[in-house]
Every structure is written in C-alpha cells, then in structure tokens.
Specification:
By secondary structure, this protein is mainly β. The protein has a single domain, classed as Neuraminidase, CATH 2.120.10.30. The protein contains two helices and 24 strands. The chain has a four-stranded antiparallel β-sheet, with no helix packed on it. A four-stranded antiparallel β-sheet has the order 2-3-4-5, with no helix packed on it. A four-stranded antiparallel β-sheet has the order 6-7-8-9, with no helix packed on it. The longest helix has 10 residues.
Length: 334
C-alpha cells in the first residue's frame, strides 16, 4: 500500500473482504453492520448483481435482482422488473426509512437505462431486498450515480449523451458532456439549471434540500449547485484527482474517492480486464467553504481504481468497479 499522507496516518492498514466483484458503489444500511454494494459487469462477469457486506463479520453475500418476488409500486411507473441475466448495477444510494425498512436506488445499465428501486427490510438477521419499481431514464442518458432528495424525489447524474458520437472525446478533453437531473413521481425528469459539467459522476443532496453536490470527473472539480426553483448559484473547487463518487461523511463533510490518472488511461485500464490498478485518493470536502483535505493516497498492486469511500465507525470502507474485493482502511473513519 502506498503512503496515506501525514505522520499520524502511518500505522493505518488496508484490509479486504475478498469475493465481491466490481463493487463500484456502496451504501450503509442504518442500524446494522451491513453495506449494500453494486456489482458491474465485466469481461469475465457478464451478469452484475448487488452485494450485502457485513462490516463486523467481514463476510458478504451476492443478491440477484430477482432474489425475492417483485412487489411493484405504481409510484415509480409501469416498468417491469429488470432482466436478471442483463443486470448491470452501477451507483447506489439509500433513503433511510422507519422501523428498519428502507429504500435503495440502483443505477442499472442492463437491458435499459433506469434507476431500479428496492425495498430493504433490515429487521431480520440479514437484510432482504425486494424490487418495487424502475424509473426509466430519458433515452439519451447514460447514468452514473443517484441520491435521494428530502422531498421524496431522486437526483441522478447524466454522465454523457448516448446519442453523441463525440461524447468520449469530450470526456478525454474535459469538455461538457452532461448534467444533473431530478425525478419526482408524476412529474418525470427535469434538468437542474446550471449543472452542466464534464462527466458528472457522484452526486449528493444537502439535508435541507437546498443544494446538490456533484463531481465533474474529467474536469477534476467538485461542484455545488442550487436546487431547481431556487436562485441560481454555483461554486466549484479544483481537486488533485478524477473525483468519482461522493458520500456524506460522518463528520458532515463530503467524502470523495477518485483516481490519480487521466480519463483515457482510466478507461483503458477499466476495459482491459477484471482488475484495474489505477492509483487512488480519498478526500474530504467542506460543503460550505469547499476546503479540501486529503485522507488517503494509495497505490496498491491488486486493488486500484477505487470509486467510493464510506465512513463506518472508526474505519473507511472503499470499493472499486474493477476488483474482486472491497477494502477497509482501519482508523480513517471520521
């Protein structure tokens, strides 16, 4: 493992839960030791999945999208359940619910571009997932990440336009390729004004619903924009990484993982096989001042391309879309 920066961090160790494949994103299930992680497809794994990871026992289990009988909710439209043989789970986000029952949102590329919605029943020994709906994306949208909004809606990143033949050239050049979109039941998708950016990746919303935070991956920026219906406002800060997913840290700051590389090299490594050893960094960003603090800087021989960091107690859990494990940095939680 490479250095993590700062003398106080010298003793920090990177441990693994081996087995979960291509976990690009993770979310914590409240009141439990469990994380739920995505599972993207790759050359040797043509079918994706979801993963349940027990952070206390350091164990995991694979969950297919058809693991339990679907229970469609008309709130999300009339889309049928996703094809389990084509499932390709990318970004994930969880809306905490009451009495141990929560809502999970999953960006799915398998057979359709959609935000798949699952009920998460965490009242038993292990969480149980039930598909309850699919919010179809606009036809030209290739999604990446999503987050719940406090008013019941969803915000998602529109990484690039699927109909644009020059989309990847624009990504490589750091030019605008997409934006943020909001969805509300009965209203559908709308564009978030002032949210245009290059390769919008991770996204989060403030607890009061006033602000959205997104990573412009190819432009190396963390961006804050106002929600629709509020006076337009945008602020941004440059960062020394290609920032991928963003999560709220336990200390109230934004927790962001990403890659110390350039877009073309990341995509080359990503498409080359099942392991992408791109060096990575984790930072924390103050949501008001946008001040940046580096938390970890890692160059690991078999665990690279990390896209997500998540606080779990004293530890920082990390996940990669091109790996056969998830990792934990002991002692680096907020």
């Amino acid at each position: 493992m490479g250095g993590t920066g700062g003398a106080a961090k010298a003793a920090v160790t990177l441990e693994f839960v081996p087995g979960p494949v291509n976990v690009e994103d993770v979310a914590r299930i409240p009141g439990t030791p469990w994380l739920v992680g995505s599972g993207m497809t790759s050359r040797s794994h043509p079918t994706g999945a979801l993963h349940l990871i027990d952070t206390a026992a350091m164990t995991w289990r694979r969950v297919a999208p058809d693991a339990r009988r679907p229970r469609p909710d008309a709130t999300y439209g009339e889309a049928p359940p996703p094809d389990p043989d084509a499932f390709d789970a990318h970004g994930v986000a969880l809306r905490p619910g009451d009495d141990g029952v929560h809502t999970l949102y999953v960006v799915n590329h398998g057979g359709r571009e959609a935000i798949e919605v699952f009920a998460v029943d965490a009242r038993g020994e292990a969480p149980e997932l039930t598909w309850v709906g699919g919010v179809l994306q606009d036809e030209n949208v290739w999604g990446n990440a999503c987050a719940p909004l406090p008013d019941g809606g969803i915000v998602a990143t529109n990484y690039l336009d699927l109909t644009d033949a020059e989309a990847f050239d624009k990504v490589y050049a750091g030019r605008v390729t997409g934006n943020l979109k909001e969805w509300h039941a009965g209203e559908g998708w709308i564009d978030v004004p002032g949210s245009e950016m290059s390769a919008p990746n991770g996204v989060e919303a403030s607890s009061d619903g006033a602000w959205l935070f997104a990573n412009s991956w190819a432009a190396r920026k963390v961006i804050r924009v106002a929600r629709p219906g509020r006076p337009a406002a945008r602020a941004e800060v440059d960062v020394d990484l290609l920032p991928d997913n963003v999560k709220w840290g336990a200390d109230g700051r934004l927790l962001i993982a990403g890659h110390r590389s350039v877009p073309a090299d990341v995509f080359a490594a990503f498409n080359d096989g099942d392991i992408a050893n791109v060096p990575w960094t984790v930072i924390r960003v103050d949501p008001e001042s946008l001040a940046v603090e580096e938390v970890a800087r890692v160059d690991h021989e078999t665990f690279g391309c990390v896209a997500t960091g998540l606080d779990v107690g004293d530890d920082l859990w990390v996940a990669s879309p091109r790996s056969d494990r998830v990792g934990v940095l002991r002692g680096l939680g907020a």
